[in-house]
UniProtKB/TrEMBL annotation:
<feature type="transmembrane region" description="Helical">
    <location>
        <begin position="125"/>
        <end position="148"/>
    </location>
</feature>
<feature type="transmembrane region" description="Helical">
    <location>
        <begin position="97"/>
        <end position="119"/>
    </location>
</feature>
<feature type="transmembrane region" description="Helical">
    <location>
        <begin position="72"/>
        <end position="90"/>
    </location>
</feature>
<dbReference type="Pfam" id="PF06177">
    <property type="entry name" value="QueT"/>
</dbReference>
<keyword id="KW-0812">Transmembrane</keyword>
<keyword id="KW-0472">Membrane</keyword>
<protein>
    <submittedName>
        <fullName>Putative membrane protein</fullName>
    </submittedName>
</protein>
<keyword id="KW-1133">Transmembrane helix</keyword>
<feature type="transmembrane region" description="Helical">
    <location>
        <begin position="43"/>
        <end position="66"/>
    </location>
</feature>
<feature type="transmembrane region" description="Helical">
    <location>
        <begin position="6"/>
        <end position="31"/>
    </location>
</feature>
<dbReference type="InterPro" id="IPR010387">
    <property type="entry name" value="QueT"/>
</dbReference>
């Protein structure tokens, strides 16, 4: 199979799964409270396996934010935070244990000011704490469980 086609298909699948998992978290009310646990954020470790995850995560996040009715600053900056986190995860792929760190840090820095200015959620320090806690659960715990589960099958799933 053509490598470019394979990467495009992988990116599209990752984007689709991200959207579905975002809707699942919303359906269970996990993305609506102070500490938001989004199953889709576990996918942010996928750049460890494939560069196709970078555009896949960005497009998935962008579509999820649009389809769930987020404010424009959240759509723009939240998606860009995911893009940056995915890119940095790919760059750090030699260090397995660092895979969830870039998305946690980028969201910890970007999302709280967005919550403040787009939604009026105060105080800022509380958003930093709650966003970070949610990202640690989603990316750090669920993401690393996903990474270890996929690692055994990486050659079959992410064949390049």
């Amino acid at each position: 199979m053509n490598k470019k086609v394979l990467l495009m298909v992988q990116a599209a699948m990752i984007a689709a799964i991200y959207v579905v998992l975002t809707f699942a978290a919303n359906a269970f009310g996990l993305a609506n409270y102070a500490v938001q646990v989004r199953f889709s954020e576990a996918l942010t470790i996928l750049p460890f396996f494939t560069p196709a995850a970078i555009p896949g995560l960005f497009i998935g996040c962008l579509l999820s934010n649009i389809l769930t009715g987020c404010a424009l600053p959240d759509i723009i900056f939240g998606s860009l935070a995911t893009l940056l986190g995915a890119f940095l995860t790919y760059k750090l792929r030699r260090y397995k244990w660092l895979a969830p760190v870039p998305p946690i840090v980028t969201n910890m820095i970007v999302v709280p000011p967005v919550l403040l200015y787009a939604y009026g959620i105060r105080p800022l320090w509380f958003s930093v704490v709650t966003v970070t806690a949610g990202e640690i659960i989603s990316c750090g715990i669920l993401g690393m469980l996903l990474l270890f589960s996929l690692e055994k099958y990486k050659d079959r799933i992410f064949n390049q």
